[in-house]
Amino acid sequence: MKVTLTIEGKQYQVELTDLNTRPIIAEVNGQKYEVWPEEEQSAVQTSPNSAPAAAPVLPTPAAPASGSSSSLLSVNAPLPGVIISIGVREGEDVSVGQELYVLEAMKMKNSIRSDREGKIATIHVAPGDLVKHNQAILTYEG
Q1: Residue 114 in contact with residue 100, Cβ under 8 Å?
Q2: For every one of its 142 residues, what pLDDT tens digit does the chain have, with 9 covering 90 and above?
Q3: In 3-state terms, what secondary structure has residue 35?
Q4: Is residue 46 part of a domain?
Q5: Residue 25, helix vs strand vs coil
Q6: pTM above 0.70, yes or no
Q7: How many domains does the chain have?
């Protein structure tokens, strides 16, 4: 499914894979993201023909730059917003699907989840911080 989204006056071309699989793969202006919709039930019911609610996205980590002596991977903010909470600590081992942090954007709280297993090396933000699109939030060890 292809859609065009306008956020803060900027248009994004989004192509989504099967909405029934997890994670959903969303390609936004040529960059791939993994989408992990919340599993909890909502009190608001929608009609069968209504569009699904926006889901949080997590960038698919890229390989480290060639020549890098480290195999660290960064998780960046998928959109501008405010960090509400951080669910991990530096040095903590995380698993696929585990909540890393909650980002409030456009009055919606987005739970950003891990797309890989690994250990958290560095957390670059704190609750209450305003972050920009693609700003580094945390870094995994290799």
Answers
A1: yes
A2: 888 877 778 888 888 887 777 777 888 877 877 777 665 443 343 444 444 444 444 444 444 444 443 446 889 999 999 999 999 999 999 999 999 999 998 889 999 999 889 999 999 999 999 999 999 999 998 6
A3: strand
A4: no
A5: strand
A6: no
A7: 1
* Torsion on CA atoms 98, 104, 110, 112, rounded to nearest 10: -30
CATH of the domain at 116: 2.40.50.100
Quote the distance between the C-alpha of residue 141 and its chain's center: 18
pLDDT tens sequence across 43-54? 343 444 444 444
Where does 19-124 show beta strands of DSSP type E? 24-28, 31-35, 57-59, 73-76, 81-86, 93-94, 99-105, 108-113, 118-123
